[in-house]
Specification:
Blueprint lengths: L2 E9 L8 E9 L3 E5 L6 H9 L6 E6 L2 E2 L10 E4 L11 H11 L4 H14 L16 H14 L4 E5 L7 H18 L3 E5 L2 H7 L2 E6 L2 E6 L1 H6 L4 H6 L6 E8 L2 E4 L2 E4 L9 E6 L5 E2 L8 E10 L3 E8 L6 E7 L9 E4 L6 E3 L9
Helix pairs in contact: 2-3, 2-4
Length: about 350
């Protein structure tokens, strides 16, 4: 049974450049953990620390109970798929796939057998095996890079934005294939991406980083529905969650001219951050309470849906976005929006922490 552990990992290049700050994460057999976050948050550095391409300033990288800090990359028994695929341009596809086995001096008969198994698993045409990487499409190169990782049968799989060079349609197709492939491996998988759709669809758990600090580690469902802070709330989800700093007046949060009932809090602050996802903001009906009124200032047609940006009455800097069905009609001068109680999120203004 394989297990990857990161214990209190810190990486410093100098006193001002600290991409990873006290990171602790466990990844078990069969788990697909995705590190996600904005550029420069430390996710690719974390992957390189696991692979041994860089050494942590502090903390431990542990695989199967053994500390790897002093173990060279080639002896860690991990496989890594790079963003650029990192295929050897002078080698044929078959030679690229076989390269990690030849380094380990695996017998030729076993090499041929493993290549045959992985080519079949990835649905790679056998005619491609004699080609050079420059003769392949982006999707084919990506499959070859994954095949090279699989053929080694490592203890841990590492993938650094492997789909970023593919077009949108191919990315969706390969994403589904990757999920099936790595599910069957039953080994720890650590995936890095800035694409939240990839993170949500592929992962059993997501680790969201910002400025080298772990913001939340949880299932895609929990992160989407119960974000730990306003950064997580704003980063995960497309279109982005509505996040507005509003004044509190009694038991109400004032959104423009309209009072929104606050949750039960031990102490009511002077200001609070109200969050609600555009798909949860709908055109009000007669049964809705606490309706917000405003003027539509922008309409974005998304095909089966339309995204309305509404200027709230009495709030010069308060705008709400609402995602409604494309065939739903609305008044261009004034719309009434409902913000369901169960869909509201509340965050602290100073630290951004979730309040309820």
């Amino acid at each position: 049974m394989a297990k990857l552990q990161l214990k209190n990992i810190r990486k410093e290049y100098n006193s001002k450049t600290v991409p990873i700050k006290d990171l602790s994460v466990d990844v078990d057999d069969g788990e697909f953990l995705t590190f996600v976050g904005p550029s420069g948050c430390g996710k690719s550095t974390t992957l390189r620390l696991i692979a041994g391409l860089e050494e942590p300033t502090k903390g431990e990288v542990i695989i199967n109970g053994e500390t790897m800090n002093a173990v060279p990359p080639g002896e860690r028994n991990v496989s890594m798929v790079f963003q650029s695929y990192a295929l050897y341009p002078h080698m044929r596809v078959a030679e690229n796939i076989a390269s990690p086995l030849k380094i380990r001096k695996t017998p030729e008969g076993e090499i041929e057998q493993r290549i045959s198994e992985v080519v079949q698993k990835l649905d790679l045409e056998k005619s491609l095996l004699d080609r050079k990487p420059r003769q392949l499409s982006g999707g084919q190169r990506q499959r070859v890079a994954v095949a090279r990782a699989l053929v080694r049968e490592p203890e841990v799989f590492l993938l650094d934005e492997p789909l970023s060079n593919l077009d949108a349609l191919l990315r969706e197709q390969v994403r589904a294939e990757l999920k099936q492939i790595f599910k069957s491996q039953n080994k720890p998988v650590v995936y890095v991406t800035h694409d939240q759709t990839e993170a949500m669809t592929l992962s059993t758990r997501i680790a969201l980083l910002y400025d080298g600090v772990l913001q939340q580690l949880d299932t895609p469902y929990q992160i989407y529905n119960y974000p730990a802070n306003s950064f997580v709330a704003g980063f995960m989800g497309s279109p982005q969650m509505n996040l507005m700093t509003v004044n509190c007046k009694g038991q109400k949060a004032m959104l423009g001219d309209f009072g929104i009932t606050l949750p039960e809090l031990s102490e009511i602050p002077s200001q609070i951050v109200l969050g609600i996802r555009p798909e949860d903001v709908h055109l009000a009906t007669e049964t809705d309470e606490e309706v917000v009124t405003g003027k539509v200032i922008l309409v974005e047609d998304l095909g089966k849906e339309q995204l309305l940006t509404v200027q709230v009455e009495g709030g010069t800097d308060k705008q709400l976005r609402s995602l409604i069905p494309a065939d739903q009609s609305w008044n261009s001068d004034q719309v009434h929006l409902a913000l369901p109680v169960h869909s509201r999120h509340w965050f602290d203004v100073e630290r951004g922490n979730r309040l309820s």
